[in-house]
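Duplicate of #3305? Posting structure anyway:
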């Protein structure tokens, strides 16, 4: 369940205005909201590694609703998707034709539909050096049952920034990849009222995509940055202390 952006914005404004500490206009709030959501999203990966080590050491609670590793993984579910990669002849590689929202890739399924029987093969992902070494050896050369891949990148028009490319050997007929997508930037949209005030518009807004459990972290994170904008160190200190308390409670 996503976090309603209007709930977060009104809470942030309430806390700031309670002590007459300033005001954050929508444009600034949207920038801070996107930054904080990105930080929370990126924190899932090192947190997951840390919690997984507890699993390996048998120190992780494994009750139905209190396994922190599973809870952390659950927060990533909204960002998972299965994406079809398309072949780019110029780069002899498979590319994701999305809108530049790809963050990371997981399991790769290479399909060899012209073989008999057809193979839907889990593809091993290695570094470029290992890929070169393995593919050049007759003994270890990849096959349609055991294909091999490595990641690279290139800027392909009309894109203006590098895109993830997959080099796969042998060349499959189609590729399906389990991906993690970046979260969409949140937007507090509005119309202008008769008195020139900002009136919340749900139709023009985009809610946070992180889980509802992150609502407190979003509010404290935005307040921390808001304290910098309004030049009030007490806001920064209070928000930072609250954020540390929440983080310690989640990881204890």
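Output from current build:
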């Amino acid at each position: 369940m996503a976090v309603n952006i209007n709930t977060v914005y009104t809470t942030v404004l309430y806390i700031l205005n309670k002590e007459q500490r300033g005001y954050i206009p929508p444009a600034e709030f949207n920038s801070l909201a996107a930054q904080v959501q990105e930080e929370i999203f990126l924190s899932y990966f090192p947190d997951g590694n840390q919690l997984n080590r507890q699993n390996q050491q048998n120190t992780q609670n494994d009750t139905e609703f209190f396994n922190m590793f599973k809870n952390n993984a659950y927060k990533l579910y909204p960002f998972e998707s299965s994406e079809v990669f398309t072949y780019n002849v110029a780069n002899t590689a498979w590319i994701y034709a999305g809108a530049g929202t790809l963050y990371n890739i997981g399991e790769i399924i290479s399909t060899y539909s012209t073989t008999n029987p057809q193979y839907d093969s889990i593809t091993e992902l290695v570094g470029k050096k290992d890929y070169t070494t393995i593919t050049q050896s007759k003994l270890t050369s990849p096959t349609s049952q055991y294909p091999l891949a490595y990641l690279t990148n290139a800027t392909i028009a009309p894109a203006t920034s590098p895109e993830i490319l997959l080099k796969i050997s042998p060349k499959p007929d189609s590729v399906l990849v389990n991906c993690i997508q970046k979260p969409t930037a949140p937007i507090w949209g509005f119309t202008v009222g008769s008195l020139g005030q900002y009136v919340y518009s749900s139709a023009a807004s985009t809610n946070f995509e992180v889980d509802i459990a992150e609502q407190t972290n979003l509010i404290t994170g935005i307040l921390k940055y808001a304290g910098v904008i309004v030049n009030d160190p007490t806001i920064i200190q209070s928000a930072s202390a609250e954020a540390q308390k929440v983080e310690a409670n989640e990881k204890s």
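Confirmed duplicate; merging threads. Residues 19 and 186 are 27 Å apart (CA to CA). The longest strand covers residues 102-112.
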